[in-house]
Amino acid sequence: MMIVNRVNHPVVLGDGAVYTVAGDPAGGRVVNFAACLGTYLVWVRYEVVGATDAAAVESATTVTQEVLSWL
Questions:
Q1: Reduced DSSP (H G I as helix, E B as strand, rest coil) percent helix, strand, coil of the chain, to 5
Q2: How many angstroms separate the CA atoms of 22 and 70, rounded?
Q3: What stretches of 12-59 adopt beta strand conformation (E)?
Q4: Cα(10)–Cα(19) distance, rounded to whole angstroms?
Q5: How does pLDDT run across 9-33, given as a tens digit for each residue?
Q6: How far apart are CA 61 and CA 12, in angstroms?
Q7: What is the pTM of this model?
Q8: Closest alpha carbon to 57 in 29, 36, 28
């Protein structure tokens, strides 16, 4: 699993997960997070303004974990 045309950062979550970060730090960042659990694919698009990339990725990871917990 990988997102095309972006730098994929693998994460240990579910059966496999990656995220990408895009956008302008001043105007807003977008974290696209994809995670698989069995036959399910969870896609989280997390948009944030005024936060560091690390905080945005941590928040997107938490949202993805919450969705996976409901499956």
A1: 25, 45, 30
A2: 27
A3: 16-24, 28-37, 40-48
A4: 7
A5: 889 998 999 999 988 878 889 999 9
A6: 10
A7: 0.81
A8: 29
